[in-house]
Amino acid sequence: MTGLAPGQGAGQAPVVAPLLVGQGLTRTFTLPRRSPFQPGPVRHALVDADLAVGAGESVALIGESGSGKSTLVRLLLALDAPTAGTVTFDGRTVEPARASRLRWFRRETGVVLQDPYSSLDPRMRVGDTVAEPLQHLRVAGDHRAMVAEVLGRVGLEPQDAERWPHELSGGQRQRVALARAVVHRPRLLVGDEPMSALDVTVRAQIIDLLRELRADLGLSLLLVSHDIGLVQHLADRVSVLRDGRVVEQGTTDDVLRRPQHEYTRSLVASVPTID
Amino acid sequence: MTLEIDHLTVTVGDRRVVDDLSLRLGPGERLGLIGESGSGKSMTTLAVLGLLPPGARATGSIRLDGREVTGLAERDLAPLRGAVVGTVFQDPRTSLDPVMTIGRQIAEPLHLHGRLSRREGRARAVAAAAEVGLPEPTTIVDRYPHQLSGGQRQRVVIATALIARPSVLLADEPTTALDVTTQAEVLALFRRLVDERGTSLLFVTHDLAVLSRVADDALVLSHGRVVERGPVTRLLRSPEHPVTRGLVEATRATTWRAS
Predict the structure, then answer these.
(1) Residue A48: which CATH number?
(2) What does the pLDDT look like over A148-182, one tens digit per residue?
(3) Residue A239 burial by CB count (10 A; 0-12/13-18/19+): exposed, middle or buried?
C-alpha cells in the first residue's frame, strides 16, 4: 500500500487539513522461543499501514478479530510504540512518553470503548467520572459547569451527575462514557466498537448523538468497528484491515457499495440486512 | 407440538419479567423471540430449561414433546436437557469446559443419557464434528477449546446441542459474539441442520436482521409481554405495534443497507 495522505490518491479523499496521520505503521511482536538455539518467531500484527483523519472528518477502520485494528489504534493513540512508522497530530509528532509530555495530545483526543459496563468505575458518581479527565489533563475553568454542560449535550440531566453507574441503563452509561470522552473538548474522538453492547433502539440514538456532537463541536471521528451498518451511517471514509494490512480504502460509499478487494466483498456480503 | 407454552408468567420479587406468554412450536418450525434487553426473552428460555435464577418463580405450563416440565424436580429435568432440548448460548468461550477435549465435550450428552463406550463416543463425536463443518474432524476431537477460533467453538457447541437428537433446539443470541463472516456461516449452519433433521428451532435475538435469516415466524416481546406475532417478513414490512415499529425503524437506521 502506498502512502495515502488526505487529498491524495484515487480522487477519494476530501481536501481537508490532516489532523491525525499514521504513516508506514508496522508493529511486530517476537513470540516466545520454541528452541533455545533459535530466536523466537516474529508475528507481524501490522504491516506498513497508512491512515489519516482530516479535520472534521469521520473515518472508520473495519476488519475482523485479529485483523490488527486494535494494534493500529493503540499506535495512533501513543499507547504503544511502532516497530516502524510515524504518527503525527496536527503536524506534531506523537510517540509514547510519560504522561506530562503527552498531555497536549491527550487534551486533543477522547476515547470511548465498547462496553459501558466495564468502562465506568462503579464506585464513582457520574459527575466525578465525567470530571476526571479535566483534573488529569489540568484543564482550567469551572469543572462543575463544564460537566453540567456536557451532560446536557449527551442528553442527560444535570442531576444525573449525582447518580451511580449501577442506577443507569446501558444507553445512559454509554452517554456518560461519551460525555467523559468529550468533556475536555478534544478535536478527535476515537470509538473502539462503541456500539456492540447496545440494543438496537439505543444504537440508533447514539448514532444520532455522535452526528450531533460532530456537527456541534467540529469533532473528527475515528471509529474502529466490525459493524458495517454503523460504519455506513457514520463514516465519510473507510479503511479495511486484514491480516495486519490495509487492503482497501476510500469513501464509505465506494468501499462498501463497490468493494474492489475480495475480502471486503465477502465482508459486505456477510452482513445481514432487512431489505 | 414439540414445545407448547401456555400462560407462562415469571416473577422476580414483585416484578413480572415474563407476563402471560403463550407459544406453540411444531416439528421443523423456526420461531424467533425478539426484544431488547429486559424484554423477558432470555427468562423465557431459562424457564423452558428449568434454569431460572434463584428468586424467580414461574407459573403456567411448559410442555416439551407433550410432557409438562414446570414444577419438575431437577433430577427429572436434567435428563431432558440435551435429550429433548438442545441449547446454544451466546458466548462459546464460557459454554465449553476448558479442560475437556472437543470430542468428550461433543459426546457428553450421549454419556449422560446412556451407556456408551469411549470408542463409540469418540466415533459419534467425529461424525458430529464433520456434520457441523469443523475442519479435520478426526484430529480436532482431541484438541481443547482454546486451540479453536470463536466460530469453531460455536460449531462445537452446536454439535453438542444436537448430538442426542433433541426435538427442540434453543438458541439464545448464538451469533452475537462472532465476527460478521463467521456469523453468516453459523446462521447458514443453523438453517441447514434444522432443515435436514426436522428439529424445531426457538431462536432468541435482539437483532431483526439476524432473525430474518433464520426464522419464519416471530414473537415480539416488550416488558415481558408478547406485543405482536406473525411471519418475520410481515413484521418487517408492516409492523403494527409501536414496539415492533420502533425496532424496525431503529434497525433500518443502524444496519447495513445494500440499496
Answers:
(1) 3.40.50.300
(2) 999 999 999 999 999 999 898 888 888 999 999 99
(3) buried
pLDDT higher than 50, residue A66: yes
Q: Is the pLDDT reported for residue B233 higher than 80? A: yes
Q: Which long-range contacts (CB under 8 A, 24 or more apart) does A10-15 make?
A: A10/A250, A12/A237, A12/A249, A12/A250, A12/A251, A12/A254, A13/A52, A13/A54, A13/A237, A14/A54, A14/A57, A14/A236
Interface check for B90 against chain A (CB to CB < 8 A): the answer is no
The number of folded domains in chain A is 1
The CA dihedral of A232, B258, A70, A235, to the nearest 10 degrees, is -10
Which of B220, B206, B222, B221 lies closest to B254 in space, CA to CA?
A: B206
For residues B106 and B161, what is the distance between their CA atoms, to the nearest angstrom?
8
Q: Which domains does chain B have, with CATH numbers?
A: 3-97+166-254 (3.40.50.300)
| Grid cell listed for B139 | 484430529
Residue A229 placed within a domain: yes
- pLDDT at residue A76 tops 90: yes
CB contact under 8 A, A201 and B250: yes
Contacts of B247 in chain A (CB under 8 A): 200-201
For residue A29, the distance in angstroms to the closest alpha carbon of chain B comes to: 20
Q: Sort out which chain A residues have CB atoms less than 8 A from B183's CB and list them.
A: 270, 272
Tell me the pLDDT tens digit for each residue of B78-106.
888 888 899 998 776 677 898 999 999 99
Query: What 3-state DSSP class applies to A150?
Result: helix
Residues in chain A with CB shorter than 8 Å from the CB of B208 are 200, 274
- Answer for the pair A200, B35: CB distance below 8 angstroms, yes or no: no
